[in-house]
Amino acid sequence: MTTQAPANPAQDSPEVTSRPAKQWTPVQRLAILAEYEALPKGDARRGALLRRHGIYSSHIARWRIQRGRGVLENEAIPTAGRPPQICDPRQQELARLSQEAARLQSELQQAEAILSIQRSLLAACHPDADHAERRTLMLASVHELAPLIGVVAACAALGVPRSSFYYARRHAPPPCSGAPAATPAPEPEP
């Protein structure tokens, strides 16, 4: 007696063959769920249905949860990642204007700092001051203004060449506010 091979071995095989994952639409998922739940529990036809569609019982469990949440009825399957942003032109304009206002506020603070230092510099420089004294005051003002707006902008605002500022900073310690400059101790003689 010879045994006949099944006509379609993949259909009659108890194992699911590996194939690329299929994306089921919500309508197809609901139809498979309805067909699966119409069969009695423990019926072999449930396994055959799963094999025919190439799915597992975990798919059925997940689809039941989705159906319970209303995801399958709305035909919107949540995807991984950040949800898409709704582009509202008013919100975009508001964000752009907020950024511009912040930039202008920063520029205003820088301008106020420059004007304040220029005023104090003008008050400190008397007409009969010599060149070295004025230069020292200008460099001290640049040194004070540089952390607020940057060296380039501070030098440009006060009319001091950057090379002079960098040269003075390299060859002499910056003036300390309020504390007397430290003088190096004389070296002992042998």
UniProtKB/TrEMBL annotation:
This is Transposase. Residues 94-121 form a coiled coil. Keywords: Coiled coil. Residues 1-22 are annotated as: Disordered. The keyword Coiled coil applies. The lineage of its organism: Bacteria, Bacillati, Chloroflexota, Chloroflexia, Chloroflexales. Residues 1-16 have a biased composition (Polar residues).
